[in-house]
């Protein structure tokens, strides 16, 4: 007598009751399983990203916001902090490492982060193709960002102001160039576009210049008298071609408004010509006829002979001073950018270790105190503490869902019990006949138990399929929202215990009907049939 086959046939004979019990088990299992998958992957990603980061220093604000913006890159920063005051972090005697972050731009929804090589080294990331950043306007891209954006080595693109997709002003003056792509790390690094801090400064200096420096009133260009006293050409070397104090009263531009080319207090950092000799400008006699600015003719200012470190001005249209097409892609033409008045968004801080290689307890106490004592602008947050708070806040929802899953599983067990118990009453005569034909009470007991376990196994398998398939479907949405890679095709040790739990539920749901089957009185049952 094949008990397994017999048990299956009994279940198939009651399809509605069997299906209902199976679905209830599947719902409970799938909900519990998907919670395990979400919780495990979330916590792994969250804790791995704060590994060895003891403190985040940024502008004063919400500590949780500091962590979300500077560590996880899923929120806006609390603000910027002055670079000139950063010594309280970088020169702090209890700080082993302070990694600068400069935020503010993005490309197609992926953040551009100004930092240094410490950031990549800290997370143990490796270059898959290309190399690390060596100069301004170069970027190294995380694996997922490169894949989603379709960027390859040598590709160029323009960043935009803001941290959201299609967010703000596009920085069209300078183009980034991809010089490296990182291997996948399953960390937030995979979602980032990394450059150096000075590139971020340069981008925003250009942005500020565009907003303020390009208001070029024609009155400032009134050269009616053409006073050349401002053109002091006693020395023929125009070191750095400095227009900062250059009196443009000498440049009669007629009605030519240079809205795009402000010479007032324009720094001309991008036009630094070093020891730029104006051999083409014979200023000994300084022929005024050649300097006829009525039509703003720059024939006498022939820049064709001027070598600007690879930045050729021969095609530079001075009639309209159109800078829209004046795009710098190579930093060789760019001078070092001044740090005066510059800011960074945050520092990721690692404390010094004690003699045992553990984080120094003294550093944990003293480092934040030194920051408090020396700067009123700086705030800080401890990632481990803030992450624990975050998990506690989200844990309420997780606990509720876990309780709901547990209740569903209990309901499925009760449904299974009712189904088996009610069918047992209908099958008492059949069981008495089985006893007459030689089946022992133990076999009847095992048969009923097997029915409960078969329903549990069917529900378990269906629930696992639903949870893992559902997780895989949700993964793309979760990646877009939280910037982490999720997968439904991983199996956790917790699911092993979930399997045992489902089997136990099937067993206990069938135990009472099985005991009753074991105790069937053959003579009484057949006499009442």
TrEMBL record:
<dbReference type="InterPro" id="IPR003838">
    <property type="entry name" value="ABC3_permease_C"/>
</dbReference>
<feature type="transmembrane region" description="Helical">
    <location>
        <begin position="400"/>
        <end position="424"/>
    </location>
</feature>
<dbReference type="Pfam" id="PF02687">
    <property type="entry name" value="FtsX"/>
</dbReference>
<dbReference type="InterPro" id="IPR025857">
    <property type="entry name" value="MacB_PCD"/>
</dbReference>
<protein>
    <submittedName>
        <fullName>ABC transporter permease</fullName>
    </submittedName>
</protein>
<keyword id="KW-0472">Membrane</keyword>
<feature type="compositionally biased region" description="Basic and acidic residues">
    <location>
        <begin position="207"/>
        <end position="325"/>
    </location>
</feature>
<feature type="transmembrane region" description="Helical">
    <location>
        <begin position="16"/>
        <end position="38"/>
    </location>
</feature>
<dbReference type="InterPro" id="IPR051125">
    <property type="entry name" value="ABC-4/HrtB_transporter"/>
</dbReference>
<keyword id="KW-1133">Transmembrane helix</keyword>
<dbReference type="GO" id="GO:0005886">
    <property type="term" value="C:plasma membrane"/>
</dbReference>
<dbReference type="Pfam" id="PF12704">
    <property type="entry name" value="MacB_PCD"/>
</dbReference>
<feature type="transmembrane region" description="Helical">
    <location>
        <begin position="444"/>
        <end position="466"/>
    </location>
</feature>
<keyword id="KW-0812">Transmembrane</keyword>
<feature type="region of interest" description="Disordered">
    <location>
        <begin position="207"/>
        <end position="339"/>
    </location>
</feature>
<keyword id="KW-1003">Cell membrane</keyword>
<feature type="transmembrane region" description="Helical">
    <location>
        <begin position="496"/>
        <end position="518"/>
    </location>
</feature>
<feature type="domain" description="ABC3 transporter permease C-terminal">
    <location>
        <begin position="403"/>
        <end position="520"/>
    </location>
</feature>
<feature type="domain" description="MacB-like periplasmic core">
    <location>
        <begin position="18"/>
        <end position="201"/>
    </location>
</feature>
């Amino acid at each position: 007598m094949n008990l397994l086959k017999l048990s299956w046939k009994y279940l198939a004979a009651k399809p509605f009751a069997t299906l209902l019990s199976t679905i209830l088990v599947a719902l409970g299992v799938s909900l519990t399983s998907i919670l395990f998958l979400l919780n495990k992957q979330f916590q792994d990603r969250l804790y791995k990203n704060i590994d060895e980061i003891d403190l985040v220093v940024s502008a004063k604000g919400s500590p949780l916001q500091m962590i979300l913006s500077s560590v996880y890159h899923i929120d806006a920063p609390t603000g910027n902090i002055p670079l000139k005051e950063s010594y309280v972090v970088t020169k702090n005697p209890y700080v082993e490492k302070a990694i600068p972050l400069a935020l503010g731009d993005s490309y197609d929804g992926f953040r551009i982060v100004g930092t240094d090589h410490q950031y990549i080294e800290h997370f143990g990331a490796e270059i898959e193709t290309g190399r690390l950043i060596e100069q301004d306007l170069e970027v190294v891209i995380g694996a997922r960002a490169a894949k989603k954006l379709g960027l390859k080595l040598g590709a160029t693109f323009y960043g935009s102001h803001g941290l959201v997709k299609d967010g703000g002003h596009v920085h069209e003056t300078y183009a980034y160039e991809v010089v490296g792509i990182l291997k996948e790390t399953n960390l937030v690094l995979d979602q980032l576009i990394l450059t150096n801090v000075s590139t971020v400064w340069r981008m925003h200096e250009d942005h500020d210049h565009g907003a303020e420096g390009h208001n070029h009133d024609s009155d400032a260009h009134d050269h009616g008298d053409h006073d050349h006293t401002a053109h002091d050409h006693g020395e023929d070397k125009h070191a750095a071609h400095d227009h900062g104090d250059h009196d443009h009263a000498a440049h009669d531009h007629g009605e030519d408004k240079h809205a795009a080319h402000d010479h007032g207090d324009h720094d001309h950092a991008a036009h630094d010509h070093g020891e730029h000799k104006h051999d083409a400008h014979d200023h000994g006699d300084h022929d005024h006829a050649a300097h006829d600015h009525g039509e703003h003719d720059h024939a006498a200012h022939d820049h064709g002979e001027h070598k600007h470190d690879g930045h050729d001005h021969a095609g530079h249209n001075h009639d309209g001073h159109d800078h829209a097409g004046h795009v710098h892609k190579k930093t060789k033409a760019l001078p070092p950018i001044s740090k005066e008045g510059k800011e960074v968004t945050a520092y990721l801080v690692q404390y010094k270790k004690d003699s045992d290689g553990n984080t120094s307890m003294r550093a944990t106490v003293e480092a934040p105190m030194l920051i408090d004592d020396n700067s009123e602008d700086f705030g800080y947050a401890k990632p481990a503490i803030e992450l624990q708070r975050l998990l506690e806040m989200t844990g309420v929802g997780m606990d509720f869902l876990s309780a709901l899953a547990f209740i569903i599983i209990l309901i499925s067990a009760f449904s299974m019990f009712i189904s088996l118990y009610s069918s047992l009453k209908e099958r008492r005569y059949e069981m008495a006949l089985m006893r007459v034909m030689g089946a022992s009470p133990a076999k009847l007991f095992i048969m009923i138990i097997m029915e409960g376990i078969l329903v549990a196994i069917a529900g378990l398998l269906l629930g696992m399929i639903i949870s893992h398939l559902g997780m895989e479907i949700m993964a793309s949405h979760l990646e877009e929202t939280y910037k982490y890679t999720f997968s439904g095709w991983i199996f956790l040790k917790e699911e092993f215990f979930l399997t045992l739990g489902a089997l136990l539920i099937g067993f206990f749901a069938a135990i009472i009907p099985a005991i009753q089957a074991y105790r069937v009185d053959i003579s009484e049952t057949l006499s009442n049939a």
